[in-house]
Amino acid sequence: MPPIRSAGSAALLFSMVLLLSACQDPSGVGLELIGEEGQDPNVVVLAADTVMIGEADEITGGFADGSSPAQERVLVGAVTDLLFGDASAEAYFDVGPPATIPNGFRDRTITSATLRLSRDYVYGDSMQTLSLALYQMADDWDPTGAKADTSFEVGALLDTFEIAAADTLLELDLPASWVNANDEFLRSDTVLTAVDGFQLRLADGAMTNAVIGFAMPDSELRLTTAEDTVSYALREVFTHTERGEAPAPPPDLLFVRDGTPEVAALTFDYDNLEGLALARGLIRLTIAPDAVESSSSFARPLPQTLALFGITEDDARFGITTATLDEDTNSYTFANTSLTSILQDVLLGNPLFVRFEMEATASPVSLGVLPLVLGPAPAEGEPDPRPRAALTVIPVN
């Protein structure tokens, strides 16, 4: 059967793979593969045939209230990074009322409004101070599917603030003029359409060397009246990011930068493996954290979770699974029954995908760099550091 040639038929077949995977879990052979590559005679380790930088849309917009698509973080700031390219970020967010409000709140005048932003991320110098400017949005905007290079129209400047990158909770008091102008809207049923939200960015002319991130599910707009304090969620969120060119990586490494369309694209040569029956198949990436670490206060957090996608001949993308960084082995391991079924189909001559792609998960957005180890090939009996598939073969009696 030739590779799939239409996104529609690919979707149908991939749905069938997921259904079959859910119904039949292979035997437990090979379930504990860390440290066993090259030792278990039933495990075939297959180094990737090609590893390169691919490209996919970098989606940074979404919803922080559990709606889909999810996005839990916004970024703001700028860094000068000679190793991995300069980066900058601007944050956008809109407000939504809580499910319940105190009796009488709608009848009382709002006396103050404070944005409370919970910082959970720093890329760059954590000792920096940032001069940030808060703007109100000029019109309604939609974060759904918004790519990192999207821009939305911004209205008037509300205020500027001096922020320490190390602070974990930022409290930005909104000016009385904004509170007075939006008081009735904030207390009404029309708040979702009448108040268009905010943009937070570096103040014009400001210099800094840090990008900070805020956990939006833990952040809020706190409104105060003479009798009440009510917290509105920051539900619609988006980050505009820009990243400059980076120098070429050293030999045997590939740098994949988040905040850009970059992804790691892998193919495998399955020659001489046709017809093998698999108990399990996985894909593993090894990284070199030392390649991105700095001896100073300049932080480059590693991506904590990667997503694995299968790509059809027509460039349709299908999510397969995710993998979390194992700090003990400096590796990510993609493994589930769907991946086993996909690899089994390849060995049976029915390939669904022409390549795999890996990237940091869309949420929470970050600027991390994935320092992917490409080589060298291992000595006999040593573990393979290259991007690889580990195929646990069912022995034939």
- Domains counted in the coordinates: how many? 2
Helix fraction bin: 10-25%
User: What share of residues are in beta strands?
Assistant: 35-45%
Number of E-type strands: 23
Give me the Rg, rounded. 24 Å
Spell the H/E element sequence.
HEEEEEEEEEHHEEEEEEEEEEEHEEE
Uncertain segments of ≥5 residues (pLDDT<50)? 1-10, 15-35
Q: How would you sum up the global shape?
A: elongated
Cα-to-Cα separation, first versus last residue: 29 Å
Instruction: Count up the helices.
Output: 4
Question: Which oligomerization state do the chains in this entry correspond to?
Answer: single chain
Q: Could you tell me the mean pLDDT?
A: 90
- CATH class type of the largest domain: Mainly Beta
What does this structure look like?
The protein has 397 residues and is mainly beta. The chain has two domains: 7-56 and 261-393, Sandwich (Jelly Rolls); 62-243, no CATH class. It has four helices and 23 strands. It has helices spanning 7-23, 176-186, 191-194, 337-347, and strands at 43-47, 50-55, 62-63, 73-79, 87-96, 112-125, 129-137, 154-164, 169-173, 198-202, 210-215, 220-224, 229-243, 253-257, 262-267, 278-286, 298-299, 305-311, 317-324, 331-334, 355-360, 369-373, 388-393. The strands form four sheets. Strands 4-5-13-12-6-11 form a six-stranded antiparallel barrel. Strands 2-15-21-18-19 form a five-stranded antiparallel beta sheet, with no helix packed on it. A hairpin with a 4-residue loop joins strand 12 (220-224) and strand 13. 39% of the residues are buried. Mean pLDDT is 90; it is low at 1-10 and 15-35.
